Amino acid sequence: MNDVAIIGVGLHPFGRFEGKTAMQMGVDAIFAALADAGVDWRDIQFATGGSWTVANPDAIVGMVGLTGIPFTNVFNACATAASAAKACADAIRLGDYDIGIAVGMDKHPRGAFTEDPALVGMPSWYAENGQYLTTKFFGMKANKYLHDHGISQQTLAKVAAKNYRNGSLNPNAFRRKPLSEDEILGSPMLNYPLTQYMFCAPDEGAAAVVMCRADLAERYTSKPVYLRAVEVRTRRYGAYEVNTTFAPVEEDVAPTVYAARAAFEKAGIGPEDVDVIQLQDTDAGAEVIHMAECGFCAHGEQEKLIADGATEIGGALPINTDGGLIANGEPIGASGLRQIHELVRQLRGEAGDRQVPGEPKVGFAQLYGAPGTAAATILSR
């Protein structure tokens, strides 16, 4: 079994880009990652990729150069990009290839997850009469969690404000204007306790990551980052998600818990060893919940940690240093590779104004996708 290193990362900015397709953004991300790795497209032996809105991401090879390489398409809702990264890494670990690339891209219309249920195979009337449950589900989940663990709505505002501040330091972010806690709490209530500015937005963007056998990495870079683990897990009982709710489900069987535990076990690294963290913050409540599910604190400890600044860039648990989904938005196919892009920049010491102090050595990323699939990734220098 081979160890795997990341030698190049590339990102197309997240936002809205009139007249530019998701595939064109993917091309830009690929070429950025290749340049970062110091390799050419002809050096890439295989590729993996995913998207919600692009049915055949493999067609991107015709836009970057037809070399005849294998290309595997993947889709796992919000965990798509981690699934692409895992497929790429596993092929190198198993010795099938020496060097490959994972790419993700998407271009979502405004309100895509609430106004266009056809994207997930549901009839238009489902949204027209108010039954599409994306924001409602997250609101109910956050409300129950806050009630059960004594966490205030003010803490959600602190999470969102922190992510907007971090996004203002990120030239690739969608939302780059800091917002105060009062502005966030005063924005329209969508689904209690979540206001408008506590949610991420569906948007557009792309990201790519070049990987190779770890023993070859120093041919390409003096700062390799090693991919210690990528683990994907689903629920063990029933389903507990947006449009597939059936059977009783206990809170302690969240797939994020299983994915994080498996990743830490495979990497031989514990939560206490992690220096910089990326968590799926589809809404501010999700970041709070995932802090505990991933093992970084006990349930109910989040309020004090957040109030004390632990999750800030200079804190003991810096979370979503690039602004997370709240500042970047979520083009689903690219979102998890954006997380890896940020962790690689942080571990290399290349994150600029948002650089975590003290030369971080270990990074962790988590994704959660409907209907109950989670992924956890661990990187190290």
TrEMBL record:
A UniProt-annotated Pfam family: Thiolase_C_1
TM region(s), chain numbering: none
Stretches assigned to the Thiolase N-terminal domain: 4-173
Domain Thiolase C-terminal: from-to ranges: 255-378
Signal peptide: none
GO molecular function list: acyltransferase activity, transferring groups other than amino-acyl groups
InterPro entries hit by this protein: Thiolase, Thiolase-like, Thiolase_C_2, Thiolase_N
Coiled-coil features, chain-numbered ranges: none
Protein's UniProt name: Thiolase, C-terminal domain protein
Source lineage: Bacteria, Bacillati, Actinomycetota, Actinomycetes, Mycobacteriales
